[in-house]
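Hey, I'm writing a tutorial for new members on how sequence and structure tokens pair up, and I'd like a real worked example in the thread rather than a made-up one. If someone can provide the structure for the chain below, I'll link this post from the tutorial.
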Amino acid sequence: MSAINIITLIAIILFARLGVRLFFKYRKLKEEDKADNKDVK
């Protein structure tokens, strides 16, 4: 494995972790938003 492949692999792993974290944070915010809307009605 050359250095470029290793760097690319590390970058892909980091971006995947970031994407998963953002997805779960977004889903949590959506659920909180729905809960807030139910309280108002």
